Amino acid sequence: MSQAFQLCILRLSAIGDVCHAVAMVTRIRKHRPDIKITWIIGKVEYQLLKGMQGVEFIVYDKKAGKQAKESVKEALGDRVFDALFVMQVALRANLLSKVIKAKRRIGFDWKRSKEGHRFFTNERIAPQRYAHVLEGFMGFADAIGIPKDPEPSWDMPLSESDWQWAREQTQHLGKYIVISPAASKAERNWTVHGYVAVAEYLSEKDYKVVLCGGPGPLDAEISAKIKEQSQHIDLDLVGKTSLKQMLALLADAQLVIAPDTGPAHMATAMGTRVIGLYAHSNYRRTGPYLSQDYVGSVYEVNIKEQKGKEWVYLPWGTRAKGKDLMTHLLVQTVLKKVDLALRHLDT
């Protein structure tokens, strides 16, 4: 009997990106359940994916410094993989890839290669024009001959206790919509005024409004300001959920409203429509994959003003810079996207 194909995936972070990677892994497991998958992943991101069927995880804790790399090396032992997907171009990930023995070391194409990425691989995925990050990840599955699917799907691991917890929190609400107001950087957050206006609008339409987010200071600060100025926040779960509990919460929501942040992609993975709020990055590349029609974006205006060209004439992934760009996103623009998404809820 021939030995099973051994695949190693190196994608450490971040939450949104590992959600994109789950779609690729789900595709591989659907078509080639015989492939043995080992995924080297960040400590925080592992908390979201722990228990995923058919995947062995090796956790990389960047806070452990040099010992983190040694721990991964020790966990791998003398294994030699048939293929390694180096799915992160950051130097930290590139250097970590050196401890992984593999016959095929597959990385990004030349244009997406940064920080010496090409020196750590011996193969590259096919170049793609105007590809979403998720589509870029799918290029790795293409490289080992996995059949394509018409649409991505996600096999996210949730236990019954996670579902039960979320439903206990929201069972008194009825139909609810989640606002996840904080991104990892303050400049990517929309205005408190905007969130307050949207919460009022949703309340007028008989939807309950739930706040969610991580335990960090940015999340706490903006959520506190929203609650100070709004009487329409029905439940505040910011910093009060595990990642898996948040995933269940987002899954049962009618809609999720969020800037460029992980919960937007978590919601997408669970089939929930997302109103994405963008100013610095092109949502066609980094926005919620299945909710592109519902994104409120001022990126196009910002990037043309800064670069003097439309985004189609600039390198893919060019970001706009500035601390106040999200203030250019008008409340009326977002409310129109909310109306569109609500009309499509039952379709």
Compact summary:
With about 350 residues, this protein is an alpha/beta fold.
Describe this structure in words.
It is a single chain. With 347 residues, the protein is of the alpha/beta class. The chain folds into two domains: 138 residues, Glycogen Phosphorylase B (Rossmann fold, 3-Layer(aba) Sandwich); 184 residues, Glycogen Phosphorylase B (Rossmann fold). A six-stranded parallel beta sheet has the order 3-2-1-4-5-6. Strand 2, helix 2 and strand 3 form a beta-alpha-beta unit.
Characteristic terms for this protein:
347 residues; Rossmann fold; alpha/beta; 12 strands; 13 helices; 6-stranded parallel β-sheet; 2 domains; globular
- Give the number of DSSP strands: 12
Q: Report the total helices.
A: 13
Shape: globular
The count of domains is 2
Proportion in helices: 25-40%
Low-confidence stretches: none
Helix-strand makeup class:
alpha/beta
Topology:
Layout: E1 6-10, H1 15-31, E2 36-42, H2 43-49, E3 55-60, H3 66-76, E4 80-86, H4 91-96, E5 101-107, E6 123-124, H5 133-143, H6 160-170, E7 176-179, H7 192-204, E8 208-211, H8 217-229, E9 235-236, H9 243-251, E10 256-259, H10 262-269, E11 274-278, H11 283-286, E12 296-297, H12 299-307, H13 331-343
Parallel strand pairs: 1-2, 1-4, 2-3, 4-5, 5-6, 7-8, 7-10, 8-9, 10-11, 11-12
Keywords: Glycosyltransferase, Transferase
GO molecular function, one term: ADP-heptose-lipopolysaccharide heptosyltransferase activity
InterPro entries: Glyco_trans_9, LPS_LOS_Heptosyltrfase
